[in-house]
């Protein structure tokens, strides 16, 4: 395990280890492998993401009940109806938090959201074991998140390779420049740049465009965290990032379909 984690990440990972032990007792690897033949047809997660200023913004709309930085966001959230609103609002994909202890999520939330729409789904979790990658595929995810900061380079590559063998797309998350090499070495095609500093919880929406300019051509940058509305999307697009992950502002919205539409349509160049 990488020794570059903030204290919140350490806490989440420690708790996750206990949950993985429980899951392995409940659904051993052999069972997950058997389930693979019955998983739903994989949806193309990467197809909707882009870095084209002329297209509407590509937005992964997130489903999360609470977070360490903001506490309860929407305790009454219904994953299926929120997913439908996101689909109508023009989401490129769904991102569903499945971590239970800090975000109130579950694999059931992911499955309910996915079944309600035709959108591809990212399992948003803290993944650091091959078991979790297999579990994601068996439980119907189309894509997984791999966070560079919680992985050492060897494990990062191993998990990315396994995901690809299982037909899953990987969104690689980085925050610091020093994580770029590790991520590219793991074969990244989609790199999520987290605008939120997980040591302080401060967000800076200019971070993603700055870091995106350091990525090689052909790698798609996705701005993660802290996007509050169409103005933030327009600023980021002006600075060169056109794909986004938006959580809190949509989850708290009284009309997520309308708000998402406004974000999707924001900052398109004529
Ligand atoms: O959001 C947190 O407090 C947090 C703390 C520790 C690890 C991860 C955390 N967030 C996960 C995310 O990456 C966000 O859910 C995602 O980028 C969406 O961000 P936002 O639009 O600001 O809700």
From TrEMBL:
Give the GO biological process terms.
L-tryptophan biosynthetic process
User: Which portions of this protein are annotated as coiled-coil regions?
Assistant: none
Q: Top-level EC class, please?
A: lyase
Q: Which UniProt keywords apply?
A: Amino-acid biosynthesis, Aromatic amino acid biosynthesis, Decarboxylase, Lyase, Tryptophan biosynthesis
**Which residues does the UniProt record annotate as the domain Indole-3-glycerol phosphate synthase?**
9-262
Cite the annotated pathway: Amino-acid biosynthesis; L-tryptophan biosynthesis; L-tryptophan from chorismate: step 4/5
Q: Which GO terms describe its molecular function?
A: indole-3-glycerol-phosphate synthase activity; phosphoribosylanthranilate isomerase activity
- What family, per the record? Belongs to the TrpC family.
Give the protein's recorded name: Indole-3-glycerol phosphate synthase
Q: Tell me the organism.
A: Desulfobotulus alkaliphilus
| Gene name tied to this protein | trpC
């Amino acid at each position: 395990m990488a020794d570059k984690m903030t204290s919140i990440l350490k806490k989440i990972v420690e708790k996750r280890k206990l949950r993985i032990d429980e899951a392995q007792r409940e659904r051993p690897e052999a069972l997950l492998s058997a389930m693979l033949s019955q998983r739903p047809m994989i949806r193309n997660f990467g197809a909707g993401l882009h870095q084209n200023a002329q297209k509407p913004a590509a937005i992964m709309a997130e489903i999360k009940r609470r977070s360490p930085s903001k506490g309860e966001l929407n305790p009454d959230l219904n994953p299926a109806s929120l997913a439908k609103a996101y689909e109508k609002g023009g989401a490129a994909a769904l991102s569903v938090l499945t971590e239970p202890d800090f975000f109130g999520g579950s694999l059931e939330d992911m499955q309910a959201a996915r079944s309600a729409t035709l959108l591809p789904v990212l399992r948003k979790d803290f993944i650091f074991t091959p078991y979790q990658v297999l579990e994601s595929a068996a439980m119907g995810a189309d894509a997984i998140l791999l966070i560079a900061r919680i992985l050492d380079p060897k494990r990062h590559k191993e998990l990315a390779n396994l995901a690809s063998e299982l037909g899953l797309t990987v969104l690689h998350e980085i925050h610091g420049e020093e994580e770029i090499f590790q991520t590219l070495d793991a074969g990244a095609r989609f790199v999520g740049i987290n605008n939120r500093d997980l040591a302080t919880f401060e967000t800076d929406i200019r971070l993603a465009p700055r870091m995106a300019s350091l990525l090689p051509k052909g790698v798609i940058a996705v701005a993660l965290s802290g996007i509050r509305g169409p103005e933030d999307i327009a600023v980021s697009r002006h600075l060169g990032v056109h794909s986004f992950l938006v959580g809190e502002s949509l989850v708290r919205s009284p009309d997520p379909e309308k708000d998402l539409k406004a974000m999707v349509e924001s900052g398109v160049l004529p």
